[in-house]
Design goal:
single chain, alpha+beta, Peptide Methionine Sulfoxide Reductase, Chain A, six-stranded mixed beta sheet, 27% helix, globular
Length: 154
């Protein structure tokens, strides 16, 4: 593996319920270089803050499409504001796009998943542009690595 420079990396932000478990799942994905957990919302100030994992990834090693596939796999996109034991708007299923291309890919991926895996059902995942991101406390970063996996539904 060659030297990695930050200018080659792209970012992706996903809300899949408990951000501890989501971060752990994305950290295990080859091509994900860095991750952090926090809270995100769109430009609509009435939108809730959602627990998210934000990753820096090398598109030469993993595509955004592959990251979307992992996102769909690790949580229930049919569940409204609930993942496992975690209930509330902050656990909403969401994709926060960093570009028009990401928004388009996410919408296409959602439509394909709905048609192939969930015919007749509605995927409730919100796809929106990332407007605000607040980093969670240091104690929440890499939580599963530090404390084990029993504290999260993912």
């Amino acid at each position: 593996m060659g030297t990695q420079t930050e200018k080659n990396l792209q970012q992706a932000t996903f809300g899949a319920g408990c951000f501890w478990g989501a971060e752990s799942a994305f950290q295990a994905q080859q091509g994900v270089i860095n991750s952090r957990v926090g809270f995100a919302r769109s430009s609509d100030s009435s939108s809730p803050w959602i627990e998210v994992v934000q990753v820096d990834f090398d598109p030469a090693q993993v595509s955004y499409h592959q990251l979307l596939a992992l996102f769909w796999k690790i949580h229930d996109p049919l569940s409204v504001d609930k993942q496992g034991q975690d209930v509330g708007e902050k656990y909403r299923s969401a994709v926060f796009a960093h570009s028009e291309q990401q928004a388009s890919e996410a919408a296409q991926s959602k439509a394909a998943l709905e048609a192939e895996k969930y015919p007749g059902k509605v995927i409730v995942t919100v796809i929106d542009t990332l407007d605000e991101f607040k980093l969670a406390d240091e104690k929440d970063q890499q939580y599963i690595q530090k404390h084990g996996g029993s504290a999260c539904s993912i």
